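Changelog-adjacent note: as of this version, every example in the card shows the full chain rather than a window. The one below runs 341 residues end to end.
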Amino acid sequence: MPTDHYVIIGNGPAGNKAAVTLRQHSKDARITILSDETHPYYYKPKLTGFIAGDVSDSDLIVKPDTFYEDQNIRVRLGQKVEKIDVETNTLFLKHMETVRYTKLVIASGSSARLLPAMEGYADHLNFVTSYTDVLAYKDQIEQCNDFFIFGGDLVGFKFIRLLKSMDKNITVLVYPHAFWPHNLDREMLSGVWHNLNKLDVNILIRDDISTIQPDDNSRLVITTAKGFDIKADMVFSFNGLIPNIDFIKGAGIDYDHGILVDEYLKSSNDNVYACGSCAQIYNPQIKNYSTTIGWPNAVNQGEVAALNLLGNHQGVESAGRKYFDMGGVKIKTTWWEDIED
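Full-length structure tokens:
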């Protein structure tokens, strides 16, 4: 009888928890993690500390290579999935290789959202969403003095505090709709402004970017809709995240912003499960789909997806923290339960 091959797309907390859970309950199956990143499983929340020099490269790593060898879990880094054929249970990789699976867990995470209006200025924008991003300009951040940040989101506010600890000059243009899958209402926006003001940063609100142009001194000039001209050495965009699901399009798997799954994390295809920030999970209580964020939720969903893939019938619930503190404003990480006062 052929050995089952369980494949996980994504090397973050959801994907790794799924792989470990599958091994715990299926000793003989083949288990493969595919990741388009070339860096081993790392703590994304520690990237800002890595920029500041408080966290070393080795401290970023969650599990050493020996762990996967001991668990007989194959990890293939730098392997981008281009498309899925759900009829034949086949993945097509960028370099034309095909990988067959018995069951598939998609835990591909999310990437920085580039606003359509900013596509023409993409070459001038920086993001803090991956190790590769950060490594490319870590030294430049240390050398630069003036920073322009627009959007916000959870990572953005942590990054602002980091820059202030490095004694940098910062201008922040807050977008209330930069926090997908969450939006800031007027009261929350006011709270964010109030708490940012304590950090001694220049704050722009209810404004927009008109242009971003380099000047004669290799700096950038950001002109806003209200006519402000701000000079900066680097511009960072923090406008929420977009699920990494381009490879499922055309495969017959239902999706909206993320992959649509039921409360058991099963997609519209019986052999495909999704978890973490790339998934939109159905909540039978509110009869709607939504997305959760945060490391504890991703770990919990990875475990639930693996167990249900093996035949369990366990509904997913929120885990760990139910909100983040973003500039003094509570932002829910899950819609499963209300925030406690």
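Structural remarks: The chain has eight helices and 23 strands.
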